[in-house]
Design a protein that fits this description.
249 residues; Rossmann fold; seven-stranded parallel beta sheet; 10 helices; alpha/beta
Amino acid sequence: MLKQERQQRIVDILNEEHKVIASDLSKRLSVSEDTIRRDLKELDNQGIIKRVHSGALRAGPPVEDFSTRQGMDNENKSNLATKALNLIKDGMVVLIDGGTTNLQLVHQLPLSLKCTVITNSPPIAMALTNHEDVEVIMIGGTLFKQSMVNLGIDTFEALDKMRADLYIMGTYKIDPQLGVSVPSLSEALVKRKMTSISTEILAMVTDDKLDTISNHIVCPTDQLTYLITERVNADIKSLYERQGITVID
């Protein structure tokens, strides 16, 4: 088997199984582990996969800016948001992070809802202007334009004085063993703080983000209370459920 064919086979296996182990690939493709490691390194350098200890994960969707993501997979995001509506009740304090799926959820919130929403996302705050009985607490900071969220020491210190019943986390990448991760360290730190001040945590994740990893870990997945996703493999779903997470798909 030529190198190009072997590397394509690795990608095909990864897309099907979501995770590969170098030692297993060595046996399946009848080549040495050193050859497999070189293949994984080359594929990682090309951005096709993401190398991890002993193997690789899917790279997941590319990191796009907020305006680009607003026009992508809107039907899927809307379906995820609809499933989350029952988790938001009158009287709650809800912390809503940035993200286009989270924005879809806010657009679906009933106008009769009576709650408090804390957010560091200007688009989410603006989307709540017609909800007369929703008190909106906008957290300041330095605007991170790629994600359209406020970050930095001011954001962090403001969160230190707050508590939330439910944190709706904007989620980039997630793996049941490696955790929730994002490409930006400053965003990871703020998300980590949001996690620490919230009683329950919800992540809404399109299936292309499952079993993927980025550069900075926010938290282990066992800190999640709810995971709303789509077309999740039964074995992967079981991994999350064994961590005490309610999976809604």
